[in-house]
Amino acid sequence: MKKAIFLSSLVFFCCSMGLWAQKNGSREKNENIKTQQAEVARTDEPVASYKRTTHPDAQWYPQAGFGMFIHWGISSVKELELSWPMMAGTQIGWRPANDRLSADSVKKIMESGDYFTGHDCKKDNSCITPNEYWAMAKDFNPKDCDPEKWVKAAKEAGMTYAVFTAKHHDGFAMWPSAYGNFNTKNYLGGRDFVKEFVTACRKYGLKTGLYFSPPDWYFDGEYRNFMYYGVGRDYPHIPVLDRDLHPGTAVKTAEEKQAHYREVAAFVKGQVEELLTNYGKIDMIWFDKDGVPVIPAGNAAWKECITMERVHQLQPGIIVSPRLFGYGDYHSFESDKNFPVMKQDGWAEFCTTAATSGWGHTKAPLKSTAHLLNYLVRSRSFNTNMLLNYGPTKDGAFTADMYQSLAEISGWMKVNGVSVKGARALDAPEWASVPATKRKKHRYLFLLAPVNGERAAEEKVEFYTGGAVKRVSLLGHSQKPGYKIEANKLIVDVPVGMRRTLPLVIDVELE
Q: Where do the domains of the chain lie?
């Protein structure tokens, strides 16, 4: 997972950058650009030929409503975001298009050798090289980790599924994998956090999802560039950086590259198969989209990698994200900035963070509960699930603020959960002037909570229906709102005194 500023049409480039050699000739640069473009286009089959799973065990997903994402790993030792702090140049490449640095400014940064110049990490002395980042593994010792507490809090907050980061781009696997040497087999005495998470989900009845990053920056350490790819795309004369963020000089032969491609294929296939065979039934595999494995499109090594067919062979009822193969069972929206703008006809998910920034545990404060619930009700009004991320500390625990956030969500869900779980968007010709959902004969109209210093105001809500209105009420309130019906249009008056600090739900029951 990454910063919201990433554009989904670009992110698949990053892994192929690992093959760049430190040469100045335009020929090498052009060859690498071709490799990047091929990598973006890679699919195992035409997207149109893949049909969303119809397996009975997967049909819980469109009505799931609400889930918990858990991003956690060795970066929590220093309260850093997962993986991305080791990547130089993001302070250049992630700038919006209307605020790009000049070529001369970037040239000075590159010539200085301080590739984090202008980065926020300079403010708190958190700049880090890949080798320094990976060294945190030896200090990662989460003695207070108890996934049951996470999952119990999710259950109480009305969440129906949970997804755990089994491995992020940094390459540290949170289970004792037989593949590679950067996992709990080599650290923590072989503790299996994946098993503990899956066991907790089963205990509390949540559908179980595992996040897996096919790009593995540790495994590809000698074959990738640790300068963010967008810098080389947008500016000339950008160095290729090694694991100490020094300009690299080693050039891999074609034979060495091909051998590595086959190693990557076997590595990815082996780890995914472990996750899908060692823990019983897995309901969801959440492949991330920050690049696919480093193997170029069309290379024979792909035949040795994991395939969609193999995933379904191991777990017939599993739901697969679209971020590895370029297609999957649902449409994925990431971060507040990429919130869907219309009703989704197919399955869809919006994932975002409870923290104001960052997926892992950092010093960033949490968003308000009003902010989070506003996104939840808006998601459901677009037939979209919301997967809300919390990042445990280095000790493996949620903070008091996280539990307070979940408790407030729990209180709201106990009263209003019926309007988002098992509910779906309105169908034409029904429409409402506010976000709305339907469930059997009930229509739920949402008054968003005021945020960012806004003040609650009197609200006039309009709802058109071809059906006859039987009853209008406010969930959790004994006081009835005033309303009238004009030509199949219901008009509800909600005085300011009825407004609350969290979203208000008008329950319209039809005959």
A: 11-419, 426-510
User: Quick one: CA dihedral 217, 223, 228, 230, positive or negative?
Assistant: negative
With CA atoms as reference, report the closest residue to 339 among 150, 448, 331, 28: 331
DSSP 35-103: HHHHHHH--SS-GGG------GGGTTGGG--EEEEE--SGGGGGT--SSGGGSBTHHHHTS-GGGPPPH
In the predicted structure, residue 363 carries a pLDDT above the cut 50:
yes
Confidence of residue 1 (pLDDT cuts 50, 70, 90): low
Percent of the chain past pLDDT 70, that is, above it, reads 90
Q: How many CA atoms lie within 13 A of 499 on its CB side?
A: 19
Question: Which CATH code for domain 11-419?
Answer: 3.20.20.80
Q: For residue 404, what pLDDT is reported? A: 98
Question: Can you give the pTM of this predicted structure?
Answer: 0.90
Burial class (CB in 10 A: 0-12, 13-18, 19+), 32: buried
Say whether 386 sits in a helix, a strand or coil.
strand
Average pLDDT over all residues of the chain:
90
Q: For residues 111 and 404, give the distance between their C-alpha atoms in angstroms, rounded to a whole number.
A: 48
Q: Which fold has domain 426-510?
A: Immunoglobulin-like (2.60.40)
Residue 410 — φ and ψ, nearest 5°? Answer: -60, -45
**Chain segment 496-507, per-residue pLDDT in tens:** 888 889 999 999
| pLDDT value at 236 more than 50 | yes
Nearest residue to 124 (alpha-carbon basis) of 468, 363, 427: 363
- The pLDDT of residue 379 is 98
Tell me, yes or no, if the two domains 11-419 and 426-510 fold the same way. no
The single-letter DSSP state of residue 373 is H
> Is it the case that residue 180 has pLDDT exceeding 70?
yes
Terminal Cα distance for the chain, rounded:
46
What's the average model confidence in pLDDT over 281-310? 89
Rounded-to-integer distance, Cα 373 and Cα 383, Å: 15
Phi, psi of 238 (to 5 degrees): -100, 130
Radius of gyration of the chain (CA): 24
Q: Which token pair is 12?
A: 């698949």
User: How far, in Å, CA of 448 to CA of 36, rounded?
Assistant: 43
- CA dist list (Å): 221 to 50, 284, 375: 33, 29, 38
